[in-house]
Known about the structure:
Layout: H1 23-27, H2 34-47, H3 53-65, H4 73-81, H5 92-102
Helix pairs in contact: 3-5
The chain binds iron/sulfur cluster.
Amino acid sequence: xxxxxxxxxxxxxxxxxxxxxxxxxxxxxxxxxxxxxxxxxxxxxxxxxxxxxxxxxxxxxxxxxxxxxxxxxxxxxxxxxxxxxxxxxxxxxxxxxxxxxxxxxxxxx
Length: 109
Ligand code: SF4
């Protein structure tokens, strides 16, 4: 579908199931770089604002707190109880700069 320009592929959920493990690329007898094709398709879909809500949540979290997942006060206290060191401070200015340079900030629903 991608090769013949059917843009409907951008709206297919299975493209988001690829874990980018490269197993298919490693074994493809025709040398098709399937993983790279899927990555390109996902990038095109994201540019059109078509991506699972989950990714929007991750993006929002990264831009707001610097982590893909929010970390609760409970978890932070629990880390202390377990003797784990405090989490390093995130450099939100650096993240914002990277997000702007990569176009991440323009890809929102
Ligand atoms: S890289 Fe290939 S084998 Fe790995 S998850 Fe994606 S499509 Fe599947």
